[in-house]
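Researcher: Good morning. I'm working through a list of sequences from a screen, and I'd like to move beyond sequence-only analysis. For each chain I'm collecting a predicted structure so we can compare shapes side by side. This is the next one on the list. No need for commentary yet; just the structure.
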Amino acid sequence: MKKITKISISVLLIATVVGACFALVACNDDSSNLVAVAATDLLQEDFGIAVTKGNTSLMSAVNQVVDEWLANGKMNQYMDYYTALANEENGGEAAVAPDGLQTSWDFGSASEVVTMYTESGFAPYEFVKGTSVVGLDVAIMSQVALNTGKKLEVKDVMFDVIATNVAQASGDAVGAAGITINDERKQVVDFSHVYSSSTLVVVSKDGQFKSVKDLAGKSVGVQEGTSGDLIISAAKGAGYVYENEDGSEVVVKAEGATVKQYKQYALALQDLKNGRIDAILMDKLPAELMLK
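Model: Good morning. Structure tokens for this chain:
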């Protein structure tokens, strides 16, 4: 796995990533033939649940669910189910949960609250169905709340304020939004065990851009505060550095790139279709679902 060893910008960010694939990964769009490409100079990163620093009891409860679901295969089952459910919301086939997979949680008369800060535009980890936010992260934290005799309250906020909200919370609070674990974030929040890993992709017309380096001089859309934002913002200047498995460092640059930040990927997609930007740097699985 490659990892960032230093970044030439100083920003507090929560990252996003999804699945490891190094080929074309989706999808023709009727109007603009958009394709997502996972390139060799993009990073595979690990997701964790962000917990207020020092809240060891909540961290233990989160890790218990994460470890159990990874061991018994439920994590993959939930990922598959919520991927299908997100696709159903976009007009695909009806999603069917495997037998015995819990998809609703009754918190009874619990009065104490676990607050989950998220940003709901990141299927299958979190997305809106009807009037509720659902997804893998919501399922994890619903089980955590149930196990601790509390109820879950989901707060849908802008992605770039999640870490701050968790850090400043006075009660039990987490950030769950496909958050990449890195050293900058560890300074303000604690992270659970890794529950998912993923990769960034470049979305462009006909898949013409296949690496960060290809984005030199181009206009690139990102969701504000994500790994895509961090990486391209660094690459357009001094560059970002990743470490190969053999320990050697590689500097990746996209000199002259213009970064356009969005609050939601849907807005970036519209600008890409209309030719206002050249590409989007985002996460693999949400990109696939978005392009479908």
